[in-house]
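Memo to structure team: turn this sequence into structure tokens by end of day. - J.P.
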Amino acid sequence: MTTLAVYSDQDPGQPLGTYTGFEDIRDQLAAVGVEFERWEASQPLSATAGQDEVIAAYRAEIERLNAKYGFVSVDVVSMHPDHPQAEAARGKFLSEHTHDDFETRFFVDGAGAFYVRAGGKVYLTVCTKGDLINLPAHVTHWFDMGPKPNFKAIRFFRIPEGWVGHFTGDTIAERFPKFEPAA
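Reply from structure team:
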């Protein structure tokens, strides 16, 4: 289930608020400049859907976002618990960083957690199937796919290099709860 927990960036022990309703999550994130949407596939997807099938199922939504933001490429990333690079992939995104471009992800399946730091708070958003999160450029954040990653997501890019992170050097991510999805 999609959830949002808002913490003081100085106290990861107790959330200031927890939200599960789409409108509440959307509104809380919008207050810090993060877009949050829900999408549905225009056609059913098979459990083993590859990039072409996924992109075809969400073609209308993808084209709308491409037109709005000028994205020049999209791809599909898929991680599963037995992926040989799972541990390394998780570690790559666990430190706070920013981007010079948007970080936009649509979860086709599974789940992952985005942590956004803004205005003295951390917004821990667990994204699940159907969720699109769009972080604007220069927003400090980190991503946790969990110890046994299991998700499929469409990624959107405006720059040819794709994902380029600028790490802040702050250890804040080490102090906050890790994403540990229920088995």
